[in-house]
Write a structure and sequence with these properties.
The chain has 5 helices and 5 strands; from the N terminus they run αβαβαβββαα. It is of the alpha+beta class and about 120 residues long. The radius of gyration is 14 Å and the shape is globular.
């Protein structure tokens, strides 16, 4: 958990990772908001290739059992970050990875994935 709007937290994470040379990428609704905005969201999501606790402490974020407004994920495989996209000055997972992440997410994830498919993936076929 961190105080502030999700968009502000996303920008802080991006700056922190840039300064510390940490590989990161926004995913789920944080990623979708940058490449195919579909829905409003109140929780940020990002993969990071370093110790999660180190990042959280560096940003002044606190782990909480419930009510989190940002989730940091450590990918099980570095291949998950292949094809990173630069959107503005921030990193987003590839459209294919974003689609897979959204499809596996409960709530409005499936709808956002379908929108991404129609807006970004199908036109490339």
């Amino acid at each position: 958990y961190a105080a502030g709007e999700v968009s502000e937290l996303e920008h802080r994470l991006a700056r922190y990772c840039f300064d510390k040379k940490v590989v990161y990428a926004f995913t789920l609704f944080s990623g979708a908001a940058r490449v195919a905005p579909f829905t409003r969201y109140t929780r940020g999501w990002a993969y990071v290739m370093t110790d999660l606790q180190e990042i959280a402490e560096g940003l002044g974020w606190k782990p909480v059992p419930t009510g989190a407004n940002f989730t940091l994920l450590r990918p099980l495989d570095e291949g998950l970050l292949n094809g990173l996209q630069d959107v503005g000055r921030e990193k987003v997972v590839s459209d294919v990875q974003l689609y897979l992440d959204l499809m596996g997410h409960r709530g409005r994830g499936e709808e956002a994935a379908s929108f991404l498919l129609e807006q970004r993936l199908r036109p490339q076929w």
